[in-house]
User: Fold SET domain-containing protein from Eremomyces bilateralis CBS 781.70.
Amino acid sequence: MPLPAKQTLPRNWPSSITYTPIPVHSPNLSSTELRTLHPPRSTSSLVPALKIPLHSPSYISILPITTPGHPARGQHGLFAAEDLRPGSHIIFYIGFVHGNSDKENHSTSDYDLSLVREAVKLGVDGEQMGNEARFVNDYRGALVQAPNAEFRDVWAEYAHGKETRIERCIAIFVREAGKSGKWKNGIRRGEEILVSYGKGFWGARKEMDEA
Ligand SMILES: C[S@@+](CC[C@H](N)C(=O)[O-])C[C@H]1O[C@@H](n2cnc3c(N)ncnc32)[C@H](O)[C@@H]1O
Assistant:
């Protein structure tokens, strides 16, 4: 998928990875998998979908992790370049959308998220292609007590050539303020955006390390 005209790569984007602002579908997705990805035609106009922008958001940055003791030191992370309000949408997790016939190719990727976890299973892998979201780190061991952001399942709308697609997507949101208001400050400019990958990710990682 070529970059739209005027699209410039985000700062610190690695030259070996393809930047794409919108999802790239595997050519091997079956018709059932494609149906699962999109809302039924009859209801698609009723689905409240968030628009995927074609430009890079200016309120986040990809930065090298230099903090001593940070477990991802030497790698990169995603940081707030402005204050981000509690509960606000940060970015979609964009990548290569794949299904059952491609799953072996993505089983060892550290950038692969589960997009649909029903009878039909789909994943979105940011290892080889994606946007800034592929740089979000997990909060564990990152010198904080808890994540300040979270993954959510959403409907997303974007232009693909002449068609408008509405499909399932994963997006990163700032954590809600909470009843006690503990997270009322949202994410401050300069802070790293940290999610929880979930115990499943780290469990699988441990098994691989021990194998
Ligand atoms: C989705 S990538 C995140 C971006 C990655 N730091 C980079 O620069 O490409 C996931 C990888 O980041 C690293 N990582 C993220 N959070 C971590 C954490 N809390 N502890 C250790 N490694 C982490 C691990 O190597 C993991 O496989």
In short: The chain has one domain: 18-210. The pocket of S-adenosylmethionine is lined by residues 71-72, 75-77, 110-111, 134-135, 137-138, 140-142 (CB under 6 Å). The CA atoms of residues 176 and 182 lie 9 Å apart. The mean pLDDT is 91.
